Automatic annotation (TrEMBL):
CDD domains: ligand_gated_channel
One Pfam family named in its UniProt record: Plug
Entry's family note: Belongs to the TonB-dependent receptor family.
Lineage start: Bacteria, Pseudomonadati, Pseudomonadota, Gammaproteobacteria, Chromatiales
SUPFAM superfamilies: Porins (SSF56935)
Record's subcellular location: Cell outer membrane
Protein name stated in the entry: TonB-dependent receptor
Source organism of the structure: Candidatus Thiodiazotropha endoloripes
Span of domain TonB-dependent receptor-like beta-barrel: 247-670
InterPro entries in UniProt: Beta-barrel_TonB, Beta-barrel_TonB_sf, Plug_dom, Plug_dom_sf, TonB-dep_rcpt-like, TonB_rcpt_CS
Length: 705
């Protein structure tokens, strides 16, 4: 589906179109070659520049919320996002898991499937492509799918601008871009962005981000292009504590989350700096196209989390992707895409500390000289050293795919990807946080642990599309993808195996001047799926479920009511069940297996739907209102209780453009609904809530030059 904010009929060339022409956009993510989305065997959404420019883009969520089968929320309204595609990513407490995030063909996702958005400038995005489920050639170990972010090209000298935004709760959004031709062969651009919000409707929820990027483009005399980028990112993010039942009721009454909550960890967050470099070369030689890419980044963070403070002085990332495309005749017009990829993430001297400033309860009467239980933190200042760690994560991969067009109506593609992923972790623990007693304990002798584990992932794919007529295509897809555990999950449970997702999917895609639609029906079987358990002490443990079955239907579409009015909508039905799963429930120091087979996966609503209405006037007036609903879901693996979700959470955009000037007003949560973005329940019955943000507005002025 192509998500737009402006109907196709108002485009300049509209009067030149005929009913025989196709109305579609190009995607490069699913198969690494440029293809119309209608011809791709699989579900894919393309969020175009019209939609992106109409959003304030404080968060990646602003652009992709409402996509069928994609669940996304944010605790801070900043770069943090809880992102789930077809159930993948559900177990992540922070960041994005099981989904490959790519920017301009360069992977942003770590080899252990962890993705962060802190070094993606959301103001420098031209287009976003989302592929759902296994099958993308880009997706090394991504069972959920792939998100590719296409930034503004250095050769695009028509998008220079200054953007100034201010809003409620201390929101500030400043951005500038300057690009131009140095000479006939060279182009350069510089972009700078600053985002900030106080989020003072609740405590400990501030965010600030500074980003600067330099791009250079070189046009070779032989027709090749070389694009390079060097960027710096600094992001400070506070993550508020969760609430219990009583505190959530207070939030529903007041619309605020103030003072200390029941969570002992009041000062979680992530404070990071990143240097990022990438260079991409493309050269056509008759039917052969070479696309080598190299990239490197250096990042560090100070990351207070549950029980400890992580202090990573620096991780060095080096990687390359060497791609070749060959156009030939095999069974009709054919294209072969093949390549190798390699990446190495190296961390030395990462440390964990105690929280230095804590409030404690007196020792129990039966042990008056014993340790005092931590009630809650008072700051995020580091205390005593708990652990030191060196880690290396290495990924090697090979991919190949053949796309053929045996007839005018048929497209056939088949291929596979193989990845080998190794974790080499050495850690020395001097102490730990004891969740049972709520205290820090230190060992008489440091405990040394070495983890050396390798996963081999094999991801085949077979897809077929058939044109019923010039407007409607039908497709079928069979694909598989492996999914490795994260580094932290392996350390907590070294017995974890990689999960394997096998997907069978059929669908229809329609494209016409006044309408478009996408319908997908899928059945995904996941063996050894990595699932999370929330213990009585609110810690999370990870284990492999025997098998889960995910069945779903996704429908999305757009209809142009008139030349200046359009409707859009999306719907997803998700039936995700454990078919074989014994959950290990902690009871003191022992664990007891409890059969959860037949239960629904938590946090995934059966129904998710969205509606949108847009209006555009040639004088430059635009209005878009979008509303999303998130159905009820179970809050634990035992399926003991449901949360109702929320209905018609509505955002509004109003803008006026005259010449080079645009003034826009974005209002989120227009009707000021009070709801939870996430509800969890522990094995002992304790529930925790994360609150949704109240109504907030931002006014933005943009000047193009």
């Amino acid at each position: 589906m192509t998500i737009t904010t402006q109907p196709l009929a108002v485009a300049d060339e509209a009067e030149d179109r005929t009913s025989d022409e196709e109305f579609d956009v190009i995607s490069v993510t699913a198969s690494r070659i440029e293809r119309k989305t209608k011809e791709v065997a699989g579900s894919i959404d393309v969020i175009d520049s019209e939609r992106i420019e109409s959003e304030k883009m404080f968060n990646i969520k602003d652009a992709i919320q409402g996509s069928a089968g994609v669940l996304i929320n944010s605790k801070n309204s900043a770069y943090d996002s809880r992102l789930i595609i077809r159930g993948a990513g559900q177990k992540a407490n922070y960041g994005v898991r099981e989904i490959m995030v790519i920017r301009d063909g360069v992977p942003m996702t770590d080899p252990d499937s962890f993705s962060r958005f802190d070094f993606i400038d959301t103001q420098d995005i031209e287009r976003i492509e989302i592929t759902k489920g296994p099958g993308s050639l880009f997706g090394a170990g991504s069972a959920g799918g792939t998100i590719q972010i296409i930034s503004k090209s250095v050769f695009d000298t028509d998008s220079n601008r200054v953007k100034l935004g201010a809003g409620e709760f201390g929101q500030q959004n400043l951005h500038g871009r300057l690009a131009g031709d140095i000479n006939d062969n060279n182009a350069a651009s510089i972009t700078a962005s600053y985002r900030k919000t106080d989020n003072d409707w609740r405590d400990w929820n501030e965010f600030e981000s500074k980003q600067l990027a330099l791009k250079h483009g070189y046009l070779l005399d032989n027709g090749g292009t070389l694009e390079s980028e060097l960027s710096y990112h600094e992001a400070d993010l506070q993550l508020p504590g969760s609430m219990d039942d009583e505190e959530f009721e207070r939030y529903l009454d007041t619309g605020e989350q103030k003072d200390t909550t029941s969570s002992p960890w009041q000062h979680s967050g992530r404070y990071s700096t990143i240097w990022f470099f990438n260079s991409r070369y493309e050269q056509e030689m008759d039917n052969l196209t070479l696309k080598p890419r190299v990239y490197a980044n250096q990042w560090d963070h100070y990351h207070p989390v549950t029980g400890a403070i992580n202090d990573n002085p620096g991780t060095t990332v080096l990687g390359t992707d060497l791609e070749i495309t060959y156009k030939h005749q095999l069974w009709g017009e054919s294209t072969l895409v093949t390549g190798v990829t390699a990446r190495r993430d190296n961390t030395e001297g990462a440390k964990k500390y105690t929280y230095a400033d804590v409030e404690t309860a007196p020792p129990p009467a039966w042990n008056p000289t014993g340790p005092a239980t931590i009630l809650h933190t008072n700051s995020d200042r580091a205390g005593d050293l708990l652990e030191e760690e060196d880690a290396t994560n290495t990924l090697y991969g090979f991919y190949i795919q053949e796309t053929m067009q045996p007839t005018e109506k048929v497209n056939l593609e088949f291929g596979f990807r193989y990845d080998r992923n190794n974790f080499d972790i050495d850690s020395t623990a001097f102490g730990e946080y004891s969740y049972g007693s709520g205290t820090y304990t230190f060992f008489d002798t440091p405990e040394l642990t070495k983890t050396d584990k390798t996963f081999n992932l094999f991801s085949p794919k077979l897809g077929l599309t058939y044109a019923l007529d010039q407007r409607i295509n039908v497709y079928g897809l069979v694909a598989q993808s492996g999914q490795v555990p994260s580094e932290s999950e392996i350390q907590s449970n070294p017995k974890l195996d990689a999960a394997t997702a096998q997907n069978v999917e059929v669908g229809f895609k329609g494209r016409e001047q006044a309408w478009s639609f996408d319908l997908a029906i899928y059945r995904t079987t996941v063996t050894d799926e990595i699932v999370s358990t929330l213990n009585e002490d609110l810690t999370t443990e990870f284990q492999n479920a025997g098998e889960t079955l995910k069945k779903g239907v996704e429908l999305s579409g757009r209809y142009d009511v008139a030349n200046n009015i359009w409707l859009e909508g999306s719907f997803a039905y998700s039936d995700y069940t454990f078919t074989d799963f014994d959950e290990l429930v902690r009871n003191g120091r022992s664990q007891t297996p409890v059969d959860r087979s037949g239960n629904q996966l938590p946090y995934i609503p059966r129904q998710q739907y969205g509606l949108g209405l847009g209006y555009y006037h040639p004088l430059g007036i635009k209005a878009v209102i979008r509303s999303n609903s998130w159905g009820s879901y179970y809050v634990d693996n035992a399926n003991t209780e449901k949360y109702d979700g929320y209905d018609f959470l509505t955002n509004l955009m109003l803008s006026y453009q005259t010449g080079s000037h645009t003034l826009a007003l974005n209002v989120e949560n227009l009707f000021d609904k009070r709801y939870a973005t996430e509800v969890k329940k522990s094995t002992s019955g304790n529930k925790t809530y994360s609150a949704g943000a109240p109504r907030n507005a931002m006014l933005t002025y943009t000047y193009l030059f």
